[in-house]
Amino acid sequence: MSAAIKTVEALVDAGLSDGVGLDAVAARYAIAITPDVAALIDAADPDDPIARQFVPDAAELVTTPEERADPIGDLSHSPVEGIVHRYPDRVLLKAVHVCPVYCRFCFRREMVGPQGLGTLTATELDAAIAYIADHAEIWEVILTGGDPLVLSPRRLRDIMERLADIEHLKIVRFHTRVPVVEPDRVDGDMVAAFKASGKTTYLAVHANHPREFTPQAKAALARLADGGVVLVSQSVLLRGVNDDVDTLADLMKAFVENRVKPYYLHHPDLAPGTSHFRLGIEEGQQLVSALRGRISGLAQPTYVLDIPGGHGKAEIGASAISGGDGCFTVRDWQGGDHRYPP
Ligand code: SF4
């Protein structure tokens, strides 16, 4: 099997880019494209929606005033290394900050990659798990990062066994791109590692375009579903990738057909160098409203944004938020109102 593409030179050699202007992008943001994703890219199409997600672009060097390094405010809610405790009943556990691919629109792009926050040391992981054990209000742990499925089945099993010992914890959720971008990694050992006595394991699968559902990806999702892992989706609404009703409808139907319940459709976050991916909230609302009439209720995602500053998620479907004077007002889960650019 060939290696992942991780340099501008390798991108050019693979015929995926002319490399112009990309050295400065590569100096700032990590690059990785797995062989499975490279094989999906139509290099003859300058607007290919798969390439747009993974092949770096000189537009990433443009940072707009509203963009910020920590767009969803992880750092302001981190009591110990690797833990984000934003809501009472759940925490993020960020064991790794490495991914098999680096999405060009990533909301944690300043934290992931070889120059990012790295992997928790054994001592840090001990402290993170001790934090969860010490907080009886924590019902759910969400392993995210980075992509936790870059860990070996042995390390995943070790984490699951330690979480299984925490009585008050009931749900373990993984956020991952792996079943789609490196499906062969999801083998029997990995599926078995997700089982933990007394816990229910959810896996939120990140995919943004129906073409990502290759035969290999479908087989990986089937292994997970057959292995007892509950699958939900997460997608990002992205200019030039899925900002039309036909693509979104096909994407959501592909999730459902592969036993993945549509869960979140994220408005793109205000991450640095990502303005070429963003569309307006009103346009997003129109797309989501159009989906209602097109596809089954089973296939409807919830349209959300993460409120900058770490205030959590807000639903932003047309009926959920208010506009006026050029800005939207979004309400956080504690009833606080926040202004958000249109
Ligand atoms: S897989 Fe997730 S964390 Fe990794 S680069 Fe993509 S969006 Fe970011």
Keywords:
alpha/beta, TIM Barrel, nine-stranded mixed β-sheet, two-stranded antiparallel sheet, 11 helices, 17% strand, binds iron/sulfur cluster
Could you explain how this protein is built, in words?
The modification N6-(pyridoxal phosphate)lysine is found at residue 313. Residues 85-308 form the Radical SAM core domain. Keywords: 4Fe-4S, Iron, Iron-sulfur, Isomerase, Metal-binding, Pyridoxal phosphate, S-adenosyl-L-methionine. By secondary structure, this protein is an alpha/beta fold. The chain has a single domain (8-340), classed as TIM Barrel (Alpha-Beta Barrel). 29% of the residues lie in helices and 17% in strands. It is built from eleven helices and eleven strands. The strands form two sheets. The chain has a nine-stranded mixed β-sheet. It has a two-stranded antiparallel sheet with strand order 10-11. The protein is globular. The chain starts with 7 loop residues before the first helix and ends with a strand. It binds iron/sulfur cluster. Iron/sulfur cluster binds next to loops.
